[in-house]
Hints:
With about 180 residues, the protein is mainly α. It is about 65% helix and about 0% strand. It contains eight helices and no strands. The longest helix is centred in the first third of the chain and has 21 residues, at about 25-45. It folds into two domains: about 1-125, no CATH class; about 125-183, no CATH class. The protein starts with a helix and ends with a helix.
Amino acid sequence: MLLTKEQIAVRQLDAAIRLLFDAGDVVSVHTLAAAAAEVFQDLLGSKDIESWKNRAVKANPHLEEAEVHRILTTAQNFFKHADRDPEATITFEETDNDMIIMLAIAEYLELLQDRNKNQTDTEMLSIPMSVFQFWFFAKRDDDPEIAPELQAIAKDLFPGLKDQPRFEQMALGSAFLCEREAD
Length: 183
């Protein structure tokens, strides 16, 4: 099997989304999504396109760049390494996975937009990424950073999602993803 870095990252991210919606292991979800985000960030860097991670550094001028990176990658690094702290523990919120998946999707969208800018046939997000994005927006229907038209679509696709307990939110995401992939 011959795979590009981008194809691998897409597969990792899609697997993380499916795992999240199916209430799979939260550490595995985070590890897969963070790995995908990192590959997308590297690919953006190779094209001299600013990543969302680098925008986070600029959005926090009161912090050193290394400190912002440390904050953004604490769980990711903890899950991968034990060389400096073999007895350490971490408190991890499973909802942090939602943010790392959205970050990875945002990075991938940047890549797609760059590639699609001069083409008539445009590439789009995968089905799991598209479903996750609208699921995420439906949970944050009061977020001013989300375009109103996207919020409206998300509310139509996932009515009342925000008011459901997390296990139900994930079950609804899983059901909708299965339905879309079956089409």
